[in-house]
Amino acid sequence: MRKYIVMGIQGSGKGTQAAMLSRDFDLAQISVGDIFRWNVQNHTKIGAQVRRTMARGQLVEDDLVQQVVDDRLRGHDWNYGFIIDGFPRSAPQAEFFLESYDIDAVIYLDLPDEEVRRRVQGRRVCSRCGLDYNLMAHHPKRADTCDVCGGELVTREDDTEEALQNRLREYHEMIGPLLELFRRKERVVTVDARPDKETVQHAIRTALGLSTNTG
Ligand code: AMP
Q: In this structure, how many other beta carbons lie within 10 angstroms of the beta carbon of residue 149?
């Protein structure tokens, strides 16, 4: 059983790296941002509660995040473990989590602000199936069209300049104390998130002592 958390700023590749680990080690991939986006797209009660907060690039309140994470983990579909990205983003979230679950490592993806800005500007999401694209690294075969389902590719509602500023500020206020909290209790591995995704994945696996045999 392996239990990991991936932390890093928006655009640092948390979801991509988590998906690669999830695929090869049979880990349940849990993304709080994806769960919220699904709720917004499907017009659920939770979706209505979080939509505006998300669009402004602000953090959803801790109680609701806690509820969503708890519900997801109670699904018990994680025989080989799980990997969570985009969580925790506040000290109360981290404390609640550590009370209920032990984890093997926090993977911290380190990325400078100017690189975040560059990546976020190229980010698109399929309005139909939710697949993420980054126009710098992953061009769809037809412009503005999802390769998988043919849906229209759009800018995420929370990828505006104002929302990005908010997120960068909040992120820098939050990340230091959170990493400190995890360092005291758990293993934190810091990985340079600037290289291509395979190189970053290789570095993560080496740091965690996992097989580096991808695919
Ligand atoms: P993400 O896809 O991780 O960038 O998350 C998108 C949005 O979902 C964030 O801007 C927040 O509004 C919300 N969100 C995701 N994860 C959390 C969290 N752990 N705590 C609070 N809000 C979150």
A: 12
